[in-house]
What we know:
This protein is an alpha+beta fold and 239 residues long. It is built from 6 helices and 16 strands. The chain has helices spanning 3-19, 132-139, 166-173, 181-185, 209-215, 226-235; strands spanning 33-37, 40-41, 51-53, 56-60, 78-83, 88-93, 98-102, 107-110, 122-124, 127-131, 142-148, 151-157, 175-179, 194-198, 201-206, 220-222.
Amino acid sequence: MDLKKRMIPLLLALVLCGAVFVPPASSASSTVYFTSINDNLRPLTADTMPTWSGGVLYVPYTVFLAQYNGGFKLVDVDYSYIHTSTTHKLTLYTLQQMLTFDLKNGTCREEISGESYPAQAIMRNGIPYLPVVMVCNFFGLDFSYTAFSQGYLVRINNDSVVLSDAKDRILDNYGRLACTVAQLNSVAPDDLIRVRRSSYGCEGLVADRAAFRRRYPELLVERTTLEDIMLFIAKGEAQ
């Protein structure tokens, strides 16, 4: 799908989030929020309780991850969280998409396409919180927000997803290119997600190892690790 067309529902969702989902007038201490994942009600903990900020509804990033939700999986997604003195980034990723929230700079972008979105993550109780409407629209999830006698229910569903292991699929496809400056310059920018340059040579992150080898049989591209992929995303640069 054309990236500009994909931006339209995301932008509309962000507008609707502020215009339609109005925070309740009662204080946070007297309001109870429940979170339902694929119609499974989650326990009332810091890992599931939503919060409002600036008219936008946020949920902990863990809501989107099966390992924090009793095995209830919303989408074929994994994550990386890097928090150091110089970098503070959270990435949710599938085989085709990488959505990174830079908490230090207050930005959000799709790493593979380079598309930026007018959204940001916030910190609550030491946990990154994400704008629920924006993330749901990005990954094709259904979202609803309902008031009832005991509080409010934030419901996130995905009825059509075919479950598999995102981590294994990424490791089966992604690769690391090791090359010289001249070799790097011979590669089309669209064929590399990120690059790293040093006095010892150049490296590139490849999304489809097999396709890259067919297109550049003279170049060496090897399997990589999740840690290296995330370092490419956090520290690398565009080609």
